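Incident log, entry 3
Record: SusD-like starch-binding protein associating with outer membrane (516 residues)
Problem: checksum mismatch between cached and fresh output.
Input:
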Amino acid sequence: MTFLSSHTFLRRSLLMAGLLAGLTACDKGFEQMNINPDASSTITPAYVFTKAQLDALNNSYYSTGVLASGGSIQHFATYKDVPAIGDKYYFQQGTYPYDFFQNGYPNAVNEISEVIRAVSTDANQVNLLSAARIWRVYVMHRITDLYGDVPYSEAAKGYTQNLFAPKYDAQQTIYADMLNELDQSVQAFDANKTTFGTADLIYGGNIDRWKKFANSLMLRLAMRMTKADAASAQTWAKKAIAGGVITQDSDLAKINYLSSGQDINKNPYALSMRNSDYSPGNGNDNIEGGKLARTFIDALKNSADPRLNVIAVVWNGSTADTTTSLQRGMPNGLLVKPADFKTYSEPNPVTVLKLDAPVLVMTAAEVNLLLAEAAVRGWYSGDAASAYNAGVRSAMANWAQINATAGSISTAKVDAYLTKNPFPASGSTDAKLAQIGSQLWITLFPDEQEAFASWRRTGYPALTPVNVTGNITGGVIPRRLLYPPTEESVNNAQFSAAVARQGANLLTTRIWWDKQ
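Fresh output:
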């Protein structure tokens, strides 16, 4: 190693100091030039809240909703192997089991957390804070219901606290906190304070409707715990009902979309299904080989459900035909394209695939069916049959929200359906729960993620799994999705703790509330 003499070192130091001084003198204004004039160091909460609402629904719908969730509960089917995570319990390539996790945290989770951080210190913005806290529960319950234990209490703290390895909270703990968040947020609303107004795409800042949404979400979460913690489920269900839930269609939570302009303005369910599978519109050249599943179509046909003609079509040339006799679902578990592929039913382009249709976030249909279940369990003083019938009627009416013409189902058809499929008021508890659970399985379509959670919780309808050679579940319908490999490598300690507590990172591992 060569050491510089003190004289040489001093000379070079003085030279460097002169150069730095010169650069400083010549750099006048450069610092300002490097600042993006269109960026801000602080957020506008209203703008970010809008984005958080959109991103919560625009998260990996095709991979998570259609392929993983919808395939698993036999709403959708495909003859191809790569997209067959739900159809055949295959996972050979791609990112299907990881997408919702990987996209959820940097987008909706971070966004709604930033909104909360921005408004939490101003008492005059308590309504903004309450709405944001409620929406964070919505965002987080969708993630934990797919994966189980996930980052929750330490999520979205990378920017604010340099916390890049957040712990995974136990799902039981997450549920307890989410329920408390809903309760506290409802209590904190103040009719005399400002709201998000038009930046709130769901309710336009209507506080009373936000309260009903929060209580309805509380009821959903409470019923989710029926097998894991019945006592807490009962307590929270009663609290939700007493607080006031969505029982009328006028209070349902939805986000409206447009058929033109940027993709973010289009219905994310319809857009992803069109782009990923159904864009050919001829019944034969579907990109991922997808159709509606035989189990689903048979259930609708066998019960004379008028929603069949709203949901499903068979292509006659370039005509989407809704004729009942033509509808037939494709079996799950096929390994090659069937010769009669074109003759199978697929989503109706003017309802399910309608780009300017609203996404229904929480409906009176779902809530009334949950009330029927609560009544069966003795947690609600209302009549189970009446609540069930109200749920079915709302479920039928929901399709007119999607398309006022093609989605309209007459009262006579609804009456005929209920006559043919009456609630078993004098039947066993199991028979009643089976009818409610099976009705939720239909009603929640096309919110496949919620339908998947409802099916795992209730076990209804009873589905026959496929057992195709090469599947990775041993012929068992998946119970959860997989943590991304990046979590195992980048956040290994926390990932490992979650796996040790919950079980192996497999599709068959049951999450906390998913008890047999």
